[in-house]
């Protein structure tokens, strides 16, 4: 009877949302050699301590035109047991299964995940690309000691081939004064049980400490909304905001390619108008965002017209070159154009046919507090 109830509810939710459209598209270009897959790696539903049905997470992803989401309900806390046993008599994989079935033919890849939830240290970890959250839960429950329970669950997740992320190291409740890398995190890292770290969590914002640890230790930077309620209650879609998201540079539009990219660190984070990531991906990303639409030459210099066709603003500040004079600071807003006039500093000289001008991109960060160096090439 209870299983029938789950099926009937799933059907009702499916039917109610069959005519979904992209109403707030986030536009991010591909880069040479990779497709840019946009997604959220941390989401809760009513099957743990969230307030929404799993299908809502898929509908929200469609609204923004996201390519993938991970369902990461807590594997041991919150309402899981009450809902699981009391209402539906289903196991801890059910929220993923409902979202996955609903997402079929809707263009969103749903990744199977679970949040392993312990006190600090070591805190919370997300295991994604798993196949059985019941086994994660059993492993976590194998010890009352936070570190031992976590380690057992991470090992089980690794056995399932998981991508493992230390979540919100800067969560106020677990790190009230400062963000701390505890000896337990070294143990987990050295045991090969940490692939990535959340540098942005919608509840806690950006963590410069986590970003720097990721760079220092070769961890993949990850973003998650960690949404428990409807995303529209936190994201100001009306005024053009987007949820924080991952920009995964994948070799194909598939779950396997997303997994491969995350394991290899081919990810950037786009959150609150800023982008965080490695220069080897951010430089080609700016190349694809800023397109030169015209170059006009005059006896005085060169006028470059640039268009930003993406949803990401680009804040440029002059840097590097001393041979030319050009604007010190300009922001190229999403969907808009700007003009950069370049003159030779030595007035007697003529501009070369092809030349480069240097900038720092003040809202793209390769490490905590370190803006991206970018060269605009004119031919
Ligand atoms: Zn958490
Ligand atoms: Zn969470």
How do the helices and strands line up, and which of them pair or pack?
Elements: H1 2-16, E1 35-43, H2 54-64, E2 68-71, H3 80-88, H4 94-103, E3 109-117, E4 124-128, H5 133-140, H6 146-159, E5 163-166, H7 183-190, E6 196-201, E7 205-206, H8 208-217, E8 220-224, E9 245-250, H9 255-263, E10 267-271, E11 274-276, H10 279-289, E12 290-297, E13 302-308, E14 314-318, E15 324-325, E16 329-332, E17 337-344, E18 355-367, E19 370-378
Parallel strand pairs: 1-2, 2-3, 5-6, 6-8, 11-18
Antiparallel strand pairs: 1-9, 3-4, 4-5, 6-7, 9-10, 10-11, 12-13, 13-17, 14-16, 14-18, 15-17, 18-19
Helix pairs in contact: 2-4, 5-6
The protein binds zinc ion (2 copies).
Residues 42, 44, 115, 226 line the site of one zinc ion.
Describe the overall structure.
The chain has 379 residues and is α+β, with helices and mostly antiparallel strands. The chain is 28% helix and 30% strand. The chain has helices at residues 2-16, 54-64, 80-88, 94-103, 133-140, 146-159, 183-190, 208-217, 255-263, 279-289, and strands at residues 35-43, 68-71, 109-117, 124-128, 163-166, 196-201, 205-206, 220-224, 245-250, 267-271, 274-276, 290-297, 302-308, 314-318, 324-325, 329-332, 337-344, 355-367, 370-378. Helix 5 runs antiparallel to helix 6 (146-159). The structure holds zinc ion (2 copies). One zinc ion binds at residues 115, 124, 167-168.
């Amino acid at each position: 009877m209870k299983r029938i109830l789950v099926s009937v509810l799933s059907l009702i939710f499916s039917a109610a949302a069959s005519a979904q459209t992209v109403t707030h598209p986030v536009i991010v270009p591909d880069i040479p050699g990779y497709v840019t897959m946009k997604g959220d790696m941390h989401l809760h539903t009513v099957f743990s301590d969230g307030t929404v049905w799993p299908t809502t997470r898929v509908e929200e992803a469609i609204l923004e035109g996201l390519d993938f989401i991970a369902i990461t309900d807590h594997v041991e806390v919150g309402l899981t047991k009450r809902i699981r046993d009391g209402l539906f008599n289903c196991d801890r994989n059910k929220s993923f299964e409902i979202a996955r079935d609903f997402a079929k033919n809707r263009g969103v890849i749903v990744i199977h995940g679970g949040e392993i939830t312990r006190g600090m240290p070591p805190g919370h970890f997300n295991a994604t690309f798993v196949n059985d959250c019941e086994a994660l839960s059993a492993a976590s429950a194998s010890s009352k000691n936070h570190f031992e329970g976590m380690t057992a669950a991470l090992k089980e997740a690794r056995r399932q081939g998981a991508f493992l992320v230390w979540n919100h190291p800067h969560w106020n409740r677990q790190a009230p004064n400062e963000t701390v890398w505890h000896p337990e995190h070294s143990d987990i890292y050295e045991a090969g049980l940490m692939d990535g770290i959340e540098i942005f969590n919608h509840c806690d914002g950006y963590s410069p400490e986590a970003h720097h640890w990721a760079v220092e230790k070769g961890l993949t930077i990850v973003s998650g909304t960690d949404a428990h309620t409807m995303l529209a209650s936190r994201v100001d879609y009306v005024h053009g905001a987007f949820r924080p998201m991952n920009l995964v540079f994948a070799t194909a539009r598939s779950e396997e390619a997303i997994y491969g990219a995350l394991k290899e660190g081919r990810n950037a984070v786009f959150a609150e108008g800023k982008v965080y990531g490695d220069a080897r991906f951010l430089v080609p990303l700016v190349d694809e965002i800023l397109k030169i639409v015209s170059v006009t030459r005059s006896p005085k210099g060169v006028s470059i017209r640039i268009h930003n066709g993406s949803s990401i603003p680009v804040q440029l500040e002059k840097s590097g070159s001393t041979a030319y004079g050009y604007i010190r600071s300009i922001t190229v807003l999403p969907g808009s154009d700007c003009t950069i006039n370049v003159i030779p500093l030595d007035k007697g000289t003529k501009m070369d046919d092809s030349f480069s001008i240097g900038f720092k991109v003040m809202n793209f960060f390769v490490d905590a507090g370190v803006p991206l160096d970018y060269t605009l090439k004119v031919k």
